[in-house]
Design brief:
The chain is α+β, with helices and mostly antiparallel strands and about 150 residues long. The chain is built from three helices and ten strands; from the N terminus they run αβββββαβββββα. A five-stranded antiparallel sheet has the order 5-4-3-7-6. The chain has a three-stranded antiparallel sheet with strand order 8-9-10, with no helix packed on it. A hairpin with a 2-residue loop joins strand 6 and strand 7.
């Protein structure tokens, strides 16, 4: 078996090709293993390195200066996906959009501060925080059962 890695900036997510003369049980097992390993991960970029991040490590994902940034327990990484793609990809893992430019991991939220003026501040376990835009307040309240 030969393994070849090709780095090409046109690919915004990891793509695996398997070239063989016939499909065998070993090939099927390899495909299943690759899919299960990477279905729970998101590829991030930092300082010319490519990092496969587990979804559970992600605290929040936001847009800043036309770049998508994932804040994780291990640092910040750039993503080559759009927020709407990430929202669709993460919707079953307790991630929720809180503004046009941000998605948070509800599992990483320590608490929600409800102020008198109708805004919600989300405080994370690492004591960083962000705000829910007014447009998304009702969606957050509904997802929290309020």
């Amino acid at each position: 078996m030969q393994v070849e890695v090709k780095i090409d900036p046109q690919y915004t997510e990891l793509k695996v090709f398997i070239l063989t003369d016939k499909e065998t049980e070993n090939i099927e097992n390899l495909v299943k293993m690759i899919e299960s390993e990477y279905s729970n991960q998101i590829i991030g970029y930092k300082e010319n390195k490519i990092v496969a991040m587990n979804r559970s490590e992600i605290i929040r994902i936001y847009s800043e200066n036309r770049k998508i940034i994932a804040c994780t327990t291990l640092g910040d990484y750039y993503l080559h996906l759009r927020l709407y793609e990430l929202e669709e990809n993460l919707k079953n893992d307790r991630f929720i959009r809180i503004s046009n430019s941000e998605i948070i991991n509800l599992r990483k939220a320590k608490h929600f501060d409800m102020s008198g003026n109708g805004t919600i501040r989300v405080v994370f376990f690492d004591d960083t925080y962000t705000f829910v835009s007014r447009r998304y307040v009702s969606i957050i309240k509904h997802s929290l059962g309020l």
